[in-house]
Design brief:
The protein contains 14 helices and 11 strands. It is α/β, with parallel strands linked by helices. It has a 7-stranded mixed sheet, with helices on both faces. The protein has a 4-stranded antiparallel sheet with strand order 8-9-11-10. The longest helix is centred in the C-terminal third of the chain and has 22 residues. The structure holds pyridoxal-5'-phosphate. The site of pyridoxal-5'-phosphate (PLP) has 15 residues, from helix 5.
Length: 443
Amino acid sequence: MIEKNTLEVLERAASTLEQGFKKLPEFKPSVDVKAIQMVLQTVAHRLQNNYPYQHPFYIGQMLKPPHIMAQLAYMLTMTLNPNNHALDGGRESSKMEKEVVAEISDMFGWDTHLGHLTSGGTMANMEALWIAGQIHPHKKILASTQAHYTHQRITSVLKLEFETVEVDQFGKMCLLDLENQLKQGDIGTVVATLGTTGMGALDPLSDILKLQQKYNFRIHVDTAYGGYYTLADNLSDDGRMIYDCLSQVDSIVIDPHKHGLQPYGCGCILFKDPAVGTYYNHDSPYTYFSSDDLHLGEISLECSRAGASAVALWATQQLLPMTKDGEFARGLTRCRKAALTFYEKLLTSSHYRPLLQPELDIVIWAPEAGTASEMSRLSRNIFDRGASEDLHMALINLPQKLIQAHWPDINYDEEHVTCLRACFMKPEHMDWMDRIWDKFEKL
Ligand SMILES: Cc1ncc(COP(=O)(O)O)c(C=O)c1O
């Protein structure tokens, strides 16, 4: 929630900003405060109908409250509303965008990059696959059956051939199935996901890199959800090894509006080889006049993009630098610790069974029952009762072939089991774990 003293900080920054334009004749747009107040009160009432995403009792979907630093920087910048398409539209905010993108690229250990912010992960993946299609126009794109659903949709928009690769019982890309498909020889790009949306699984990137040497394909990593976890210091050894391979891939997508503490409208695409910039070559007769420096619209599929997003991210990275020993990294470590703690509590419960030890911060579990259909029914019941008592979880449908190795004793009278799912994305979840567990047990 908005704290009064942070609004004072914003007011002070707004008058500093105004100083920069004080040589202009005074100009104030007319504002009917009373009318605005009435409408805003209606807005506030209507928004009460949303779930309480900001509260630690919300452990449902991938929703993380933006840091107050990001909110303030965004609000301040919105008063100018720069457009980072061209330097003409966002001179300083474009510089800030280049700086934050370079810092993200550094975080992955890259010494070269070409990249920019996008409106989200889907647009960022679209650019990665568009470039993949430009480089290998007649070759297929592969992603696992647990990859984000938009990869298939994006390839259909781009008119590129797409195939899925099976996953193993851990929800990770199956290397045997991948190699079988690679042997056919028409694969241009493999999409590996680090932090699948459903299960938070990490595809086996080190092995995929070994296959790349044999079969020669591009590797795009969709780490929209999990990318920042490269900073956490409590990954499993296998997880650490996977993240340490990121410096070797061709392109990466990461979403600052997921674990990067940003408001929505902030994804990021990075290419290792800056030469891919040539594929973006286009003529814009209306923009790019104010400077010979790079206008971000020259290397972006989208035209208008919010300069405020770049400034909010810049301010957040200043306050919370992306270093392994910093507060930002400690926040991620705590998220995974919260997920592991919840998982361990489930292990000792006689009412529930967890599916897997979480690789990141997503936990999946189900109520004990003899049949798949009864497990699903109970999961849905508990999901509803939790929501009515202010403990907000999520659900996930998983196929028998994925979960049978973990739960062989169930009678699979249905092919899918609906399980409960939680994303422990807030650093505060760890402090709230006993209260969350108490509330959950009472369900
Ligand atoms: C792994 C992964 N990729 C891509 C996306 C799509 O990102 P966005 O919702 O920002 O478009 C998501 C969203 O949850 C995701 O988890």
